[in-house]
């Protein structure tokens, strides 16, 4: 699991192995999603990069000075979210063969994470949770206290540089699905990883029959912007 790799640094994946004294004809290969991207045949041939990773592999990177091990690691330059996936290291000689694989998750943390709610005139409360500029696409869930809401509407929008903006919204009936002082929570998760984030707020109730927007003007304007982004239609409040 790699979070927000620095493009100026190397992403290094190591491959450890043992070569028995009687073994000959050693070849090491790295594969990305089962496609060969790196090959080394020591001691007389230098490493070579292959296919789509050709310009991203540092072929001079070394691990120690042992002749049969120093170029075993895969050093990827200018890492980005495109480097995520399954990596496999295979080693074989004329006498034996072995391969090991592991999944690499690269996470670009969100640039924004917003949880808002709005009560309209007919005792419906709209809850919207939005996350911006994240990779990979996250899973969002809404909760009331410790109960997960299953009827949310999810919107997922690819944006620049392969990142995602995502939103989940739900409408709740006041005094049925939602009570004053209930805790509204949004959970963000990246599937397959332990990356988790949470936002929560306390619902501020009102007396029955009183139509009130329980948000400051600035907060409500932000909510309107969220509706414009994810629903594509203007949202208004009747006086």
If you had to describe this structure to a student in words, what would you say it looks like?
With 239 residues, the protein is mainly beta. The chain has 2 domains: 11-104, Immunoglobulin-like (Sandwich), CATH 2.60.40.10; 112-203, Immunoglobulin-like. It is built from 1 helix and 17 strands. It has one helix spanning 217-231; strands at residues 2-3, 10-13, 27-32, 35-40, 48-49, 74-77, 85-92, 97-104, 106-107, 112-119, 124-134, 139-144, 147-148, 153-158, 164-173, 183-189, 196-202. The strands form 5 sheets. A 5-stranded antiparallel sheet has the order 5-4-3-7-8, with no helix packed on it. A hairpin with a 6-residue loop joins strand 16 (183-189) and strand 17 (196-202). The model is unreliable at 1-5 and 207-239 (pLDDT under 50).
Summed up:
With 239 residues, the protein is mainly beta. The chain contains 1 helix and 17 strands. Helices cover 6% and strands 41% of the residues.
């Amino acid at each position: 699991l790699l979070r927000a790799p620095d493009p100026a640094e190397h992403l290094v994946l190591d491959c450890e192995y043992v070569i028995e004294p009687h073994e000959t004809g050693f070849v090491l290969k790295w594969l990305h999603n089962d496609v060969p991207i790196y090959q080394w045949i020591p001691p007389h041939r230098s490493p070579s990069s292959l296919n789509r990773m050709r310009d991203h592999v540092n072929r001079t990177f070394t691990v120690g000075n042992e002749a049969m091990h120093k170029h075993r690691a895969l050093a990827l330059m200018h890492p980005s979210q495109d480097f995520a996936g399954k990596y496999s290291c295979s080693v074989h000689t004329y006498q034996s063969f072995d391969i090991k694989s592991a999944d690499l998750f690269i996470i670009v943390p969100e640039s924004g994470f917003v949880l808002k709610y709005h009560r309209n005139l007919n005792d419906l409360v709209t809850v919207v949770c939005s996350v911006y500029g994240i990779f990979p696409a996250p899973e969002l869930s809404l909760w009331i206290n410790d109960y997960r809401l299953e009827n949310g509407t999810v919107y997922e929008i690819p944006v620049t540089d392969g990142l995602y903006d995502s939103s989940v919204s739900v409408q709740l009936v006041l005094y049925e699905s939602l009570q004053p002082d209930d805790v509204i929570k949004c959970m963000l998760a990246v599937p397959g990883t332990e990356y988790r984030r949470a936002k929560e707020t306390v619902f501020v109730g009102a007396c029955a029959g009183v139509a009130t927007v329980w948000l400051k003007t600035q907060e409500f304007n932000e909510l309107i912007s969220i509706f414009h982004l994810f629903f594509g239609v203007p949202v208004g409040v009747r006086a």
